[in-house]
Amino acid sequence: MQPTYFNKPILIVGLGISGLAAARFLLTQKALVWAIDQNKDKLRKRSDIQILESQGLQFVAEKDLPPLETFLLVVTSPGVPLTHPVLQLAQAKNIKILGEIELAFRSLRNKLIGITGTNGKTTVTLLLTHLLNYAGIPAKAVGNVGEPLSAEITCSSETVLVVELSSFQLDTLQSRQLDMGVILNITPDHLDRYASMEDYALSKMKIKSCIKEGAPLYMEEKAFQNYGFLQANFPCHLYGYSHNCHLMSDQQHLFLNKNIDSILPVEYRGTKSHKLENLMAAYGLCREMGIDATLFWEGVSTFNTPPHRIEKVAIFKDVSYYNDSKGTNIDAVMRAIEAIEGPIILIAGGVDKGTDFSPWISAFANKVKHICVIGQATEKLDRTLSKSFNVVRCQNMHDAVKHASSLAYPGDNVLLSPGCASYDMFENYAHRGKTFREAVNALASIQNT
Questions:
Q1: Residue 448's pLDDT is what?
Q2: Mean pLDDT across the stretch 39-65?
Q3: β-strand partners of 33
Q4: Which GO BP terms apply (predicted)?
């Protein structure tokens, strides 16, 4: 039975994309919706907020809220830490706290597939969605990519919803609604919000408690080896390169339950790559959905990788320029460095997320020639890396592209892969990538005249 919110007072903390979607849904249910946001004065000027206010949304300052005991529940946005004073007080008063995803879980009847991990979530979510549709199974990518899940509550129940789940979203999930899922990898990220890597890993592993009893969860073998011990009784289907994996590659074939299930296309043979690991994750889930190997590889051949992920944006004077703005943690940057052939001038920096950048020293050896740094993390990056690399401090993205280009020789690559969050200088990672592209194009037009 679906929950009813008619005439029930509900508080939303944070009116970002998720919070707005939750507000829209709750207003259609005739709930009494209140909302707070630290950027209230700026948001009040937006037409979409004004429309919601005309529909009954009470958007107020925190000090103007009625007593918290007034509210049936509190819906929080993923960008709001659970240490927020309002959430702490709600918890102390035993008021239910839900995330936007959990709110949607309680009203959806669709088949749901959850995708989490540190890196590759968006790519695998979009790839799996593409493959399902290619196979004739209607599917839509939602959650941390595409539309918020609560915006899809009215979609056809025949549509499979492929849900990208960040650790922040998993932190507020409670229901077992996922029909299957995958943990792609677990490497350092968001250590400004989590007390330790173990806490961050446990957040990712919480997806297991959101999967229906007996439903399959796939997990990359290295992630399980490193963090599986954190939870007793954590059954899952491992995938990787070891013979004990449920889904295994010998770099020539894919084995399922130790039997050859598919021959790898030529371009994926002979190497252990992050791209192959993402494909294996999608393969396991597609096989669970009844899609055969032939149809899978046909679908893969028609998939376009999303932008801002090791995306070649230009080549001029025999120097290639790559936009990997989505690379917001140290492991993502190392994956990008590994994927590009030839010497690299790296552009990195932004908002530090509690990161130890020292693993880059060995990972970049004999590959990275220079590092141009920008943003709040400039001092830390310079301090950590300057003894091993030529580190150039830059004022902004255009300055960084200009310096990187001046340091590049024919055959080199200029790579934006920040290893940091974007919000010190940009609206989001996409805005950062767009600015990089604009800077590269501006430089190309000057140098080609």
A1: 66
A2: 95
A3: 10
A4: cell division; cell wall organization; peptidoglycan biosynthetic process; regulation of cell shape
Same domain, 141 and 288: yes
Asked whether residue 127 falls in the same domain as residue 252, the answer is yes
120 labelled binding-site residue: yes
Residue 151 pLDDT > 90, yes or no?
yes
Tokens of 292: 């055969």
Which residue reads 């949607």 in tokens?
104
In a domain, 168, yes or no: yes
253, 271, 302 - which closes a domain: 302
pTM equals 0.92
Number of structural domains found in the chain: 3
Residues spanned by the domain of 58: 9-102
Mean pLDDT of the chain: 96
The 3-state secondary structure of 211-280 reads ECCCCCEEEEHHHHHHHHHHCCCCCCEEEECCCCCCEEECCCEEEECCEEEEECCHHHCCCCCHHHHHHH
Same domain (yes/no): 171, 237: yes
Q: 184: buried, middle or exposed (CB in 10 Å: 19+, 13-18, 0-12)?
A: buried
Q: Does 133 belong to an annotated binding site?
A: no
Distance CA 263, CA 119 (A): 26
* Tens-place pLDDT, residues 105-130: 999 999 999 999 999 999 999 999 99
**What pLDDT does residue 341 have?**
94
Same structural domain, 98 and 61: yes
**Is 271 marked within a binding site?**
no
Residue 118 labelled as part of a binding site: yes
Amino acid at position 105, single letter: F
158 and 88, same domain (yes or no): no
Kindly state whether residue 220 falls inside one of the protein's structural domains.
yes
Residues 164 and 277 in one domain: yes
411 is known to lie in a ligand binding site = no
Structure tokens at 76: 């929080």
Residue 341's CATH number: 3.90.190.20
What's the rounded Cα separation, in Å, for the pair 164 and 278? 14
Given a contact cutoff of 8 angstroms between Cβ atoms, the answer to whether 449 and 429 are in contact is no
